[in-house]
Structures are given as C-alpha cells and as structure tokens.
Specification:
Layout: E1 2-5, H1 10-21, E2 27-30, H2 40-45, E3 53-55, E4 61-63, H3 65-75, H4 86-112, H5 135-154, H6 168-182, H7 192-202
Helix pairs in contact: 1-3, 1-6, 4-5, 4-6, 5-7
C-alpha cells in the first residue's frame, strides 16, 4: 500500500495518526508543493485532487481520511480505532463528527479566508476560483470558541474524547486543535481539561506522524 500525503495539511494527518497507532509501515508519498498546491502528476493520478489517498497493491484507490482509517482498522483491527463494541463505535463516530464539523471546519474557515495562498481557493476541491470571504473569519473564530468549550466540558470526565480509549475521534480533535494554531488561535487558558488532553496526546508517537 501507498499513502499519498501532504504532510503539512491537517486532514491527512488523521489517517497518518491511525496508521502510526497500529504500528504499520506504509509507504508515504508527499504530493504537496511549496506553493501550497498539489503536484500536477498527483492530480492526474487522482482527479479528485484531495489528500490523503490510499492506493492498494492492486491499484485500487481510497480517498478521504476517515474512509482510509476505516479500511486500515478493518484490515488491522488492533488496537481498535473505532471502538470495541456497537455502543463505543457509535460514541466514537459521534465525537469524531463533532470534532470535524465544529473544529476542523471552523479552523479551515479562518485559515482559507485569511491566507494569501488561498485568495481564490476559499473552498477545497473546486476547479473554478472560489473567493475568500472576510466575514467568515469572524464566524470561524466564534465557532472555534464554542468548539473549545464543548470539548473541554466533555473531557472533564473522560480521559479521551469518546471515553477511556484513544480513538479516531481523538485524531480528528488533535488535528483540529493544531489547525486552529495555524491562525494563532490557542486553547483558552480556562479550558484546562482540553489542555490536559492535548498535552497527553501530543506525547504520543502518532502525534508526530
């Protein structure tokens, strides 16, 4: 297998963290350029023009971080990244989705509407120019404030975001918080539960994947 990756981007890191948690040695191919654009040869290979993409030994392709993580989890079930039973799988799915929608998307809203490299790339995955909207920056910051506090509350009584085991939901949450840092938006000082969790996850080898 090969994982086509853009190491600087927050979304593919979720898949890399899953792979690292399982101790797998999968070839990783960097396809991001210094101009913050994907290489043309990769786009020709994978016209969806998104990362990550997992290419199987027989040439079949899987896109999207969570789809890739699910495949990896099915093929290599230990340690489980999506829960150990039906209820846990539901809880993990619930918090992973919240982390993505309320954290990753909010951080992306701020970053894509402020960074000069994304002046005509306000949304990912479009072949036509999508202008930046300055008003979305304020909304993104407000969303992140709510996101931090919701997850701080959940972590008051849980070691990890979906309970007592590290899961794909933690990978998404970690990458979302890191993505907010790109726009110099930090964990609020009074969100001590979230900071405790972030410090613990930062020490895991997968956080450096």
């Amino acid at each position: 297998m090969k994982l086509y990756d853009w190491h600087a981007a927050p979304n593919p890191k979720r898949a890399r963290m899953c792979i690292a948690e399982k101790g797998l040695d999968i070839e990783i191919i960097e396809v991001g350029g210094d101009d913050l654009k994907l290489r043309p040869d990769y786009i020709a290979k994978f016209p969806q023009a998104m990362v990550p993409m997992l290419e199987l030994d027989d040439g079949r392709q899987l896109g999207e971080s969570i789809a890739i993580a699910r495949y990896i989890d099915e093929m290599y079930p230990s340690p489980p990244m999506f829960g150990r039973n039906a209820y846990e799988r539901g809880v993990v799915e619930m918090w992973e989705r919240r982390a993505f929608d309320e954290g990753m998307m909010a951080a992306g809203e701020v970053f894509r509407n402020t960074h000069e490299a994304f002046i005509d790339r306000g949304l990912p995955g479009f072949a036509v120019p999508v202008p930046q909207i300055p008003a979305l920056v304020d909304r993104g910051r407000m969303r992140l404030e709510l996101f931090f506090r919701k997850f701080d509350e959940q972590l008051a009584n849980n070691r990890f975001i979906a309970g007592d085991m590290f899961s794909i939901a933690d990978c998404t949450l970690f990458c979302s918080v890191e993505f907010a840092f790109w726009s110099d938006i930090k964990i609020p000082a009074d969100c001590k539960n979230l900071q405790r969790w972030f410090d613990e996850v930062s020490a895991r080898p997968s956080a450096k994947a």
